[in-house]
Structures are given as C-alpha cells and as structure tokens.
C-alpha cells in the first residue's frame, strides 16, 4: 500500500515531480558529461604521451643495463609483454666535404609501439615501411646542411649508409634529443657497422616495453624497476608529458575539470535540497491527513523515503538517457572547438556515478528532512497559512552529518584528488555554516528597525519563515556562486594557455653569440630580412648567499635521487641578465621593477621569477650574493615577476638592474621569429658557415606540438565551462522561479486583506530584490573570494577574475526572478482569493 | 760575502711570501657544475698548494656550456688581476657540439697568444672526445691540442679527465660532469703539471 501511495504522489504533485526530476537529471547530466569528458581527455593525453615515449614503460640512460636486470624486468612484466631496444648517440655525419653533428638512433624493428615516423614519400613507420640493409632516414634540415638528397650516401663512423627517405613528422621528438642536432634513423641491426659503440663511447640505451597495465600499476612498477636497476644514471619512465610547463598545465586542467565536476555535483545537491525541502513544507497537510487516518510516524517515514528513492532513481535514469542522447550531439557541436577525438561511448563509471549520486544524494539529503518533518509536533496543520514552525535544533543539524561525510567522500572521488575534494567541500560547508546564523541574526535585527511598511512586512515575513527564507537564500548564494565560479577560474586559466599568433612565435634559438658577433649578426639578419625577435646578454654566475646565509650544499653519499637533484639545483650556476624593461609575457606580481640604470650608490636591484623565488624561499628585500667570474656582486630583490611561458621566449630567473653587469664577460642569446621550413634550414646553414660557434636550435617543431595540446586544453576549458554554466543556469533559474511562485498564497492572503496591486507589486519586488538579488549578488561576490582561494591552492595564484560575466549573471538571474514574480502577482490579481488559497494548498 | 748571503736570504724570504695567481678559464668541468665551489678542482688545487706552503691565489673564470669562442673576452676581463698562470680548459663543448675544429683551434690560438703577450704562462688542458664521435673527428680533435702545444711552446695536460671520464664512480648521474670525488682526481692530474712550474 505504501508503494502505491508513493506512486500516487507523482500524479498528485506533478509540478513538483517534474521540476525535481529535471533538476536532478540536469545536475547529473552535467556531472556525468564532465566525468565522461574528463576520462576521455585523460585517455587522449595518455595516448599522446605514449606516442612521445613510444611505449608503456621504458628504461633509459647512458650506458647499457646488464642483461640479467632486463631479464628480471621482463619476467616481472610477464610473457604477454613486448620488448624492443633503441640505441642512440651524438656523432658526426659527413657527405662529400660537409660534416655535421647528428643524433644517430638505431631502432629495433617494430619500435616504437605507439606513434612513429611519417616520411616525405608517404610511408609510415613502423606501420607500412621498413628500413633496408644499411639504409637511413634523415631529418629534412640535413639536406641543406650536408647538401644531400635521397639516394645519396652519408658517412657515419666506419660505414656509408644510403639515405632512403626524409622524415616529415616524428611523434617521438623531445626537446632533449631532437633539438640539439638533427636525427638520423637506422635499423638497430645496422647500427654496429658504424663501429661507434665501443669502450669510451657515450651512448644512450633505451629498453621499451609494451604492457597491458593501468596507470597506477605502471606507477608501482616504475618504483619496483628503479630498485631492480639500482643505477642512478638510468631512469624508468612511464608516459608523461613533453615538458614541465605542459605537465603543469595538464595538472591545472585536471584540477579544473575536477572542480567543474564538483560544481555540477554541488549545483544538483543545492537544487535538490531546496526543492525537496519546499515540497515537504507544502506536505504538512498530507502528513496530518495520513496521521489522522491512523498511519504511524514510521509508516509515513517509509512512505516518503520510498517516494524519495523512486524520485532519485527516476532522475538518474532520465539523466542517463539524456546523456546517451546528448553526448554525440555535444561532441558534434563542440567538434571544432575541442580538437580532440573523444569517445562517443559513455564511460560506464560515469553511469554508475550518476546513479550513486542521484539515488544516494537524494536519500542522504532528503531523509534528514523527512525525519525533521515526521518528528515535529503536529499542532493544527490546517491553521495559519504558510506558518512554519520548523525549528533548527542541534539534533536537526546533526541529522545532516552523514550527508556531509558522504559529500566529502564523493567530492574526493569526483575530483580525483583528496586535496581538491576536501578544500572545495570545506569552503562550501564553511560558507553554509556562516550564512545560516548570520542571515537569521540579520533578519531578526533588521525587522526590529524602523522601516517602511513594505520592508518591515518583508523582514518580519523572513523572520517568521526563517528556515525556509534562509534555505532559499543559501541555495541562491551557493547556486550563483557555483554558476559564476567556473567562468571566474576559466578566464585565469585561459590566460595560462593563451598563445601568441603564429607569426609571433619563435622558430630558432641562437646560443653562444659572442659580444663582438652581435653587430655583424644583427646586420646580417636585417639584410636578409630575417626577424630577430630578441638578443639578450647572458652572464654566468654562482648564487652563493641569501641574506648572508650560504645556499650551496655538499652532495653527500646516500642521498635519494630527488635529494641529489634538489642539491644540484642549488649548486648549479645561474644565468643572469640585465635590462630596463620587462620582457615579452612578463608581469610584476610583487614589488616594483627598476626603471633606471644603477648609479653606483647603494645595492643594485634584482628582479626574480616567482617559481624560482618560491623554490629558494626568496622574498622582496632579500639580499643575494653572487660570484660573477671571480668578482663578488650583491643585489637586493625589489620585484618578483611572473613569466607567461606560452610566449615561448627565453626567460631568466634573475634579472639585474642595468649598470652592474654591463662589463662582465658575457654571451648573447638570440631568438629568431617565425620562418617557413625551408627558410629556417637555410638560415641555420648560413649562420653555421658565418658564425661556426653559434648553435642554432630549431624549436618550431616542438612549439607546434605543444600548441596543438594547448589548443585542446583551451577547448576543454571552454567546453566544460559552457556546460557548467548551462547546468547552473537551469538549476538556479528553477530555484528563482520556484521561489518567486512560492509566495503566491501569501499574496492571496494579502489580496483578501485588501492590498492593492501596487502594494503587492512593491512587496514582491522588494522581496525578490532582497532574497534573489541579495542572494545571487552575495554568491557572485563570494565567487571572487572562492576563485581567489582556489587559484591560490591549485593554480599557483593565477587569478585574473573577469569583471563583466559574474555581474551579467547576477542581473540576469535577478531580472528573471522579478519577471517570474511579476507574472505570479498578475495571476494573483486576476484570480479570486478563494481559488488561490485552494491552489496554494 | 756576508752581505751577499744576507741579500740572497732576503730575496728567498720575499719569494716565499709572493703570491702566484692562477687563472682557470674553462667550461662546466672547471666551473664545478653541480658541486659546491670549494669542491671544484680549481679550489682543491689551491687548497692543496697552500697546504704545501705555496702561496697561490685562484681565479676561476669558467662558464658552463661555453666554447672556445668566449675564452678571449674572459681572459681580457681577468687581465686586470695580472695572473701568472693561465690554465686553459676549453674545447670540450666545441667538440661535443661538432663545431668546425679550425674555428676552435683559431680561438685557442688567440687566447694563448694574448696570454703570452702579457707574460702569462699557459697550461693547456687536453680533451678527448667519446668514441662515438668517429675516429677521424676524434683524432683531429686530440691533435689540435698537441699541435698548439708544439706551435706555441706552452705546457699541456694530456687529458684533463684522466681516470674520471666514463667512470660512473667519479661522475654525477648525468655521466658527464665529475662529482666531488672526480674533482679530487682532476685536481691531482692538474697538480702533476702545475706544481713543478711553481
């Protein structure tokens, strides 16, 4: 019978059922889509990282790893795993009279397992083409540098190899090995004929494995194999990202997507809490009726719990259907904006999560409300229209403890990070815990003041219905906070992945330019109309002391690899530069940048890059002591700079005020702007002939690849933000609309008492402005504070809040509330009070 | 006679208190990349000589990643300090980067000539390239140092990294830069050539 009654509730309360189900469904849709998107994006990134590494796991380093150790690793990985080797080294390649440094790489047939090479003649290695006996493939720049063509012979060590093709795209190129010298690829079997691998050779060995293991299993294996290999010169690698900076942005994105998922979860919860609470409030007649018909409190509790369970299940089911239908549509819509090949199949984990949150969330949040309602003193429910005698005791608050715990766990799972989940939950639970008592105190205090009739009426109304007023107010604060939080963070992160136009990107870095070469180099490049974007002095120094305290430390034995790296970082010399202006993409975040030349009085000024400052614990006002080629130089930190690395311009950790290091021996670092492929090779070749000591490093291929990734991240950020805003708008609009409508019965009563349309209108306008306008404004303002806090915790303080978007959101939501309330008031004025009072029940 | 003995004693005393300034111009190996300054081989050479009662002052004008091209400007910078010896340890990066050897040789020659013109005794630290750079290039590279020694009548350390290069025990994890133990060995190698000249 209870089940029957529970189902009857759906037809009895069609309007509530529809809004509640849609709220749950939309909230869950957002959550599931974001989870799905996140998993897909992770897979895409992982695939890309695998292409760079060429395998699932690799052991690389200078010198060979003993066979017995490799056998141990292979045994551990099992029979199903595949294994290939790769051997590489710098050597001199020659053709006719030309000789150039190259990276000579011998690949075992079938390697790499992922990615590979694309050749100019259309072949794809290892998919559809193989190297013949003593054949090589070369990087395109070697054609100009050595004057060589396909079919010619190239001398490497003791052998002459035949150039079989030219590499058009190398998926495995990294900055470390691919940029210093062009690559030549040979079959591993034919590498020995060059006779270069002997005692005294400096050769890098790579042992690559293809295994069917999860990311976490690989992480564990990495640690295990590091112990097996037990050689500090070898590294066990799993697919990671191309550079530290890209890795950092990927971490930002992961945290951001985690936050977006949390926002969807919170929005669904806030909506569900408010709607269900309002529903129960309106159900007091039903409670009393059921009770007077002889139904015990336990049975009423069971009935409403059952109803809630069905609601949660149905909401989740609708969400799954919508998401199944929407995924292809959304991905199709985002097709160009998100340059990622995302899976159209919904991740099963997202579906399970949807049901878990939909059903579990409803029960955890609804059951305390049902208990509150069932256990309250009945009184006369038919007396006092809309009067709420629901109190807020400690017991009531304790009832929500299981929900808080459930919510924290869920936040950690959804954000995939204990830190993100807990900080986010703490911020929101903290805000709720503050707003609740403050609102009640404020309303009580204001209602005692000398106010106009309308305002006094409204505040007394708020006081009378304090629990429902604070609930709607809090829901609106949190809803609008969540809605504007994502655009708030998005604009900060977008600037991190923002890139200059193609024409402004560098293509060549020039190292080791001597002082006397600067003028001739500048003139030559100018004459050839080659864009020289920057030429910066570079002075080598040692940082000896910070505020008189030595920073160099001894590399004692027995230190871990990480400790050794950290100590070497401190012992490493530093490159200094000097300039009056900030460089491209630089911004002062603390202190003041120097604007004049050092006049010889006092201590010279220094500007420090923020991450470097953080790593060494340097602050404004600190005195740093350097040794510049035997000469002691001191400086005081007067500014800390942030550097936007996506400009891809070389930057310095430490910049001195001009007038201090000008006479010190120095070299210059040059940057050449965008050049076409052929033009770039020609410039490199002519520079090599004219200035043999200047090393030109082609950074264009690497930058291009990073830019593709950045574009994908940008798309992901924007796509996810859009989704969260859509979900947020729906949920908050539902709250605003419901709230504006909810007071119909009060207006009906006022109309019966003789209030005019103008009076009613004024009261409803004030009421909406105070609750909706005030709540959403507070939410918008809090979104700045929360945005700042989250940026501080997760995004290295990258906080550049948008000015317009949050306020447009606030005005839209308040306007929407006023509009809905206006319609409601008009309806009230048109209908007879008796009918209205009947409807309001 | 007594007067002459007295004057000679005075000269010997003065001589024993005169300080010898040794300038090191090199790359990361001589800069002491990755080890504290006092553990780099130029500092160790100074410590060892001073312990033996020889008054020496070390100037280290070495820069990581530098090639022979920048040597001349660094020497000019240190000329004000009037060094007595120049230990020239450049050329490794030229070789590793595949720079034309004629160019490296020309740069080294200029540095040595400038030093000699200022009456600075020059010790050229010889370098070897790894086998993988190919026999021809390696031999030409090694010969470059021998040729300069002969041509300019200077002192030469046959191989600065003797016993250190390629030995994991004496190098940092990167396999290129000597660790503290490696710097100890290099200091001994340098002293074998330098000490008899003081």
Topology:
The complex is a heterodimer of chains A (841) and B (198).
Chain A: H1 2-12, H2 14-53, E1 57-62, H3 67-77, E2 82-95, E3 98-107, E4 117-119, E5 124-125, E6 135-138, H4 141-146, E7 153-156, E8 159-170, H5 175-178, E9 183-187, H6 188-191, E10 204-210, H7 215-229, E11 234-237, H8 244-282, H9 284-292, H10 297-333, H11 348-375, H12 394-399, H13 401-415, H14 418-447, H15 453-464, H16 466-497, E12 508-514, H17 515-527, E13 532-546, E14 549-550, H18 561-571, E15 574-578, E16 586-591, E17 605-609, H19 610-616, E18 623-628, E19 631-643, E20 654-656, E21 667-672, H20 677-690, E22 695-698, H21 700-742, H22 744-752, H23 757-794, H24 804-830, H25 833-840
Parallel strand pairs in A: 3-9, 6-8, 15-20, 17-19
Antiparallel strand pairs in A: 1-10, 1-11, 2-3, 2-7, 2-10, 4-5, 4-8, 6-9, 7-8, 12-21, 12-22, 13-14, 13-15, 13-18, 13-21, 16-19, 17-20, 18-19
Helix pairs in contact in A: 1-10, 2-8, 2-10, 2-11, 2-21, 8-11, 8-16, 8-21, 10-11, 11-13, 13-14, 14-15, 14-16, 14-23, 15-16, 15-23, 16-21, 16-23, 16-24, 21-24, 22-24, 22-25, 23-24
Chain B: H1 2-17, E1 20-26, H2 28-31, H3 41-51, E2 56-60, H4 71-79, E3 85-89, H5 92-96, H6 101-117, E4 121-125, H7 135-152, E5 155-157, H8 180-194
């Amino acid at each position: 019978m209870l089940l029957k009654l529970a189902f009857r509730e759906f037809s009895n309360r069609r309007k509530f059922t529809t809004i509640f189900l849609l709220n749950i469904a939309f909230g869950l849709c957002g959550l599931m889509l974001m989870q799905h998107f996140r998993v897909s994006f992770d897979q895409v990134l992982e695939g890309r990282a695998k292409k760079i590494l060429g395998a699932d796991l690799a052991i690389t380093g200078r010198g060979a790893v003993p066979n017995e150790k490799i056998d141990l690793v292979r045994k551990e990985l099992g029979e199903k795993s595949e294994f290939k080797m790769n051997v590489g080294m710098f050597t001199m390649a020659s053709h006719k009279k030309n000789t150039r440094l190259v990276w000579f790489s011998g690949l075992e047939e079938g390697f790499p397992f992922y990615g590979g090479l694309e050749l100019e003649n259309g072949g794809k290695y290892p998919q559809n083409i193989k190297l013949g006996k003593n054949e090589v493939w070369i990087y395109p720049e070697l054609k100009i540098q050595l004057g060589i063509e396909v079919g010619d012979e190239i001398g490497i060590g003791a052998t002459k190899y035949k150039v079989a093709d030219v590499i058009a795209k190398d998926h495995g190129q990294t900055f470390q090995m691919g940029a210093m010298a062009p690559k030549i690829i040979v079959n591993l079997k034919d590498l020995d004929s060059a006779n270069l691998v002997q005692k005294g050779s400096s050769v890098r060995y790579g042992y690559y494995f293809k295994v069917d293991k999860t990311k976490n299993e690989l992480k564990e294996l990495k640690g295990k194999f590091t112990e097996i290999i037990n050689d500090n010169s070898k590294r066990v690698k799993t697919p990671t990202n191309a550079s530290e900076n890209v890795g950092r942005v990927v971490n930002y994105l992961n945290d951001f997507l985690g936050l977006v998922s949390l926002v969807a979860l919170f929005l669904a919860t806030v909506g569900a809490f408010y709607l269900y609470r309002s529903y129960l409030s309106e159900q007091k007649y039903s409670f009393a009726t059921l009770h007077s018909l002889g139904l015990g409190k336990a049975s009423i509790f069971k009935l409403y719990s059952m109803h809630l369970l069905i609601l949660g299940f149905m909401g989740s089911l609708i969400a799954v259907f919508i998401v199944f239908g929407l995924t292809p549509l959304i991905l199709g819509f985002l097709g160009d904006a998100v340059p990622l090949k995302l899976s159209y199949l919904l991740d099963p984990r997202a579906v399970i999560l949807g049901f878990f949150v939909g059903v579990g969330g409803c029960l955890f949040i609804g059951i305390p409300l049902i208990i509150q309602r069932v256990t309250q003193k009945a009184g006369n429910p038919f007396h006092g229209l809309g009067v709420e005698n629901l109190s807020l005791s400690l017991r009531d608050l304790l009832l929500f403890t299981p929900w808080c715990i459930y919510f924290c766990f869920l936040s950690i799972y959804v954000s995939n990070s204990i830190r993100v989940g807990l900080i986010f939950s703490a911020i929101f639970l903290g805000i709720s815990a503050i707003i609740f008592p403050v609102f009640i105190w404020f309303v009580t205090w204001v209602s005692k003041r000398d106010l106009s009739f309308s305002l006094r009426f409204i505040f007394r109304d708020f006081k009378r219905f304090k629990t429902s007023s604070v609930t709607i107010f809090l829901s609106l604060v949190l809803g609008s906070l969540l809605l504007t939080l994502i655009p708030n963070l998005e604009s900060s992160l977008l600037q991190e992945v923002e890139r200059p136009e193609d024409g402004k990107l560098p293509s060549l870095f020039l190292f080791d330019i001597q002082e006397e070469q600067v003028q001739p180099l500048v003139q030559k490049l100018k004459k050839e109309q080659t864009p020289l974007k920057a030429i910066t002095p570079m002075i080598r120094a040692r940082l000896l002391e910070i505020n008189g305290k030595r920073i160099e430390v001894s590399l004692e034995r027995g230190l871990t690899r990480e400790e050794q790296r950290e100590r070497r970082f401190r012992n490493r010399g530093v490159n200094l530069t000097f300039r009056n202006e900030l460089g491209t993409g630089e911004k002062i975040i603390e202190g003041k940048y120097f604007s004049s030349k050092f006049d010889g009085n006092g201590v010279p000024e220094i500007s420090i890059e923020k991450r470097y400052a953080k790593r060494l614990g340097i602050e404004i006002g600190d005195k740093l002591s350097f040794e510049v080629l035997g000469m002691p130089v001191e400086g005081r930190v007067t500014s800390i700079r942030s550097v936007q690395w996506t400009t891809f311009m070389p930057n310095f950790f430490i910049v001195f005020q001009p007038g201090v290091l000008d006479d010190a021996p120095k070299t210059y670092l040059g940057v050449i702007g965008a050049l076409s492929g052929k033009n770039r090779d020609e410039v490199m070749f002519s520079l090599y002939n004219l200035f043999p000591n200047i090393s030109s490093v082609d950074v264009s291929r690497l930058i291009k690849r990073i830019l593709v990734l950045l574009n994908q991240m940008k798309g992901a950020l924007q796509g996810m933000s859009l989704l969260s805003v859509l979900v947020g708008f729906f949920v908050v609009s539902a709250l605003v609309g419901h709230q504006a409508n909810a007071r119909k019965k009060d207006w009906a009563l006022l109309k019966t008492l003789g209030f005019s349309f103008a009076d009613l209108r004024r009261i409803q306008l004030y009421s909406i402005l105070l609750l909706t306008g005030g709540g959403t404004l507070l939410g918008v303002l809090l979104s700045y504070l929360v945005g700042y806090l989250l940026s501080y915790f997760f995004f290295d303080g990258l906080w550049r809040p948008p000015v317009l978007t949050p306020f447009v959101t606030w005005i839209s939501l308040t306007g929407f509330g006023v509009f809905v309330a206006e319609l409601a008031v008009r309806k009230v004025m048109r209908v007879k009070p008796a009918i209205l009072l009947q409807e309001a029940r | 006679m007594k007067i002459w003995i007295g004057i000679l004693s005075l000269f010997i005393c003065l001589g024993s208190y005169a300080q010898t300034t040794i300038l090191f111009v090199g790359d990361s190996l001589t800069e002491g990349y990755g080890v504290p300054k006092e553990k780099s081989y130029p500092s160790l050479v100074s410590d060892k000589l001073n312990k033996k009662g020889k008054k020496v002052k070390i100037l280290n004008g070495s820069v990581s990643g530098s090639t022979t091209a920048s040597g001349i400007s660094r020497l000019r910078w240190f000329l004000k300090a009037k060094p007595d010896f120049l230990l020239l340890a450049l050329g490794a990066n030229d070789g590793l980067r595949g720079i034309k050897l004629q160019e490296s040789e020309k740069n080294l020659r200029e540095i040595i000539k400038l030093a000699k013109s200022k009456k600075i005794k020059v010790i050229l630290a010889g370098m070897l390239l790894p086998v993988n750079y190919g026999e021809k290039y390696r031999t030409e590279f090694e010969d470059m140092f021998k040729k300069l020694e002969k041509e300019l009548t200077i002192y030469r350390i046959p191989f600065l990294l003797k016993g250190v290069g390629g030995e994991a025990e004496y190098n940092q994890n990167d396999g290129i830069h000597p660790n503290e133990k490696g710097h100890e060995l290099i200091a001994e190698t340098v002293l074998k050539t330098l000490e008899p000249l003081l």
